[in-house]
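Lecture notes, unit on binding sites. The following record was shown on slide 14. It pairs a sequence with 4'-deoxy-4'-aminopyridoxal-5'-phosphate.
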Amino acid sequence: MLAKTEQIWMDGKLIPWGDANVHILTHTLHYGVGVFEGIRYYDCGIQGSAVFRLKEHMRRFSDGCKVLSLKQPYSSQELIEACLTLIRANKLKEGYIRPLAFISEGPNAGLWAYENPVRVAILTWGWETYLGKEGVNHGIRAKISSLTRHHRNIAMTNSKVCGQYFNSVLAKQESKVSGFDEAIMLDPEGFVAEGTGENIFLVRDGVVKTPPLGSIIPGITRDTVITLLSEQGISVKEEQIARHQLYIADEVFLTGTAAEITPVREVDMRTIGNGTPGPITKRIQQKYSDLVRGKIEERKDWLTFTDK
Ligand code: PMP
């Protein structure tokens, strides 16, 4: 259930949640050309709250706007400040932040909306575990989707483009109505790409693998996990993965800002390992949890404290 907050940042100012509305001719509503982000901030105890890797999220947001030629009017620094202002105004200690750049209504209702203004809104709400507490603690059941991930020359697969997510929504829908928790998407060549809103890792015989960047979202959690593992002397192989490699893996886990580190205990009715979260998954879950809550001194550079 969505935990609403009082204020939303829209077009440079804070407004009440209920007033953050758009016109029905909003271009993005019709054609999907917009960019969004998903960011989390955590309660770091006496240190206050901190946003995790805010700069990197805002960089991906700006990159996505550039990829779509969306000329949004704010600098990354202004958007970073806007996120912090929003968190302070809503007085939440932990939550999720959703920046969204979209093409507004304007002189053009057709496809080329070059004169329509680009607007930016930033929302925050409280969001506990994305794939459920049970999933985080014991692992989720996943299904390979019958829907293929976009080809990288059909969509801008490395950017968080609003319209592109219909592919993820359909896959998610299919997995849920089939009794699974999440879908794993294959790319057009049939290799494992990612979850509907997460990247994916597998472990077999102590070797960790993840699909290469190419047609997937360059996950900030994915990058964090690769860094944390390499600091522990475990290098991650970024290589193409066939679906059967998931079936015979010792461990599989998903990574994402919303999903954090979620173990996968079953893929297509095959039990992964012994059906419980494996040692590398558990270790990385713990490290990630410590990291985002400001318990790892050397990695404080990834945190933006909201009170400073
Ligand atoms: N893949 C997809 C399709 C996503 O939507 C997300 C969520 N942004 C990710 C991967 C993970 O990215 P991140 O770790 O930056 O949240």
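Take-home: The chain has two domains: 7-125, 133-292.
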